[in-house]
Write a structure and sequence with these properties.
The chain is built from eight helices and eight strands; from the N terminus they run αββαβααβαβαββαβα. With 268 residues, it is of the alpha/beta class. Strand 7, helix 7 and strand 8 form a beta-alpha-beta unit.
Length: 268
């Protein structure tokens, strides 16, 4: 089947559109909606083999470089990054969906997400897949929330693989807005999201459940961790793991949030 994503948006995600434009009759993908990330592997930066299994961040001398993970703040059990690190073509594609709200970028990310889930049977054994919710303040002039757009586009294909939150009503909600955290340090990010999420409704179904939480970009892991905390402490979930499209890599002396750190603050 021929992949048809139309012309690439100006200046955005060109390499992935070019790589997948002539995609047809692929033995890895087969017919239908999902696209295996393996078919875009040449454009992706994979997670390092020795990365932290809990938060997928890079390690140094066997030690995770993520502040939240090192200090025991990170509540999720494991993290999977469908498109690897937030670099190069993957980063441009995510920005096209997040900042430019391009529906073609959202659709391609949805197809790659569905392909990743289909290619990894272990991820289909969770009791429920649910996306990180958003507050209306986070739209910031965009017509739709990017992660929600990606999730809803992929939902018919995802439902064939794992039980999914149909968002009517959502299992998890964001109860107050969080200011933009771009460029903020790690401590500020963890403080900002505390108390921002709650269960959408009370139910016994979550008790003892193994949940897979979906997000687009993991930077410090603070947002996903706060969602996991609510699902575990208030919902009674036995375990919450995280599936993200991309993982923000740690950079020496800049940490995960983008602000410069001293060597002692970095802990390396």
């Amino acid at each position: 089947m021929t992949l048809s994503c139309g012309a690439p948006p100006q200046g955005r995600a060109l390499s992935l559109w070019v790589a997948l434009r002539g995609h047809r009759d692929c033995p890895r993908c087969g017919p239908g909606y999902p696209i295996s990330p393996a078919c875009a592997a040449a454009s992706l930066v994979p997670i390092a083999a020795d990365a932290c299994p809990r938060c997928a961040q890079r390690c140094c001398a066997g030690r995770c470089l993520s502040l939240g993970c090192r200090r025991g703040w990170f509540r999720a059990g494991a993290t999977y990054a469908a498109l690897g690190y937030n670099q190069g073509a993957a980063q441009r594609l995510v920005l096209a969906a997040k900042d430019a709200a391009d529906p073609r970028a959202a659709r391609l990310l949805g197809r790659l997400l569905a392909g990743f889930l289909r290619a990894h049977p272990a991820l289909r054994r969770y009791d429920l897949l649910l996306p990180v919710p958003f507050h209306p303040e986070q739209l910031r002039g965009r017509p739709v929330h990017p992660l929600t757009a990606i999730y809803l586009d992929a939902l018919p294909a995802l439902r064939a693989l794992v039980r999914c939150d149909d968002l009517a009503p959502p299992w998890l909600v964001q109860v107050h807005g969080v200011p933009s955290l771009r460029g903020q340090g790690e401590h500020a990010r963890w403080r900002a999201v505390r108390g921002a999420f709650a269960l959408g409704f009370r139910t016994r179904i979550l008790r003892g459940a193994r949940l897979l939480l979906l997000d687009d970009v993991m930077t410090t892991g603070a947002t996903a961790s706060e969602c996991a905390r609510v699902l575990i402490e208030d919902g009674g979930a036995a375990r919450v793991d995280v599936l993200v499209l991309v993982r923000q890599p740690w950079h020496a002396h800049r940490g995960e949030g983008g602000r410069d750190l001293t060597a002692s603050q970095a802990g390396v």
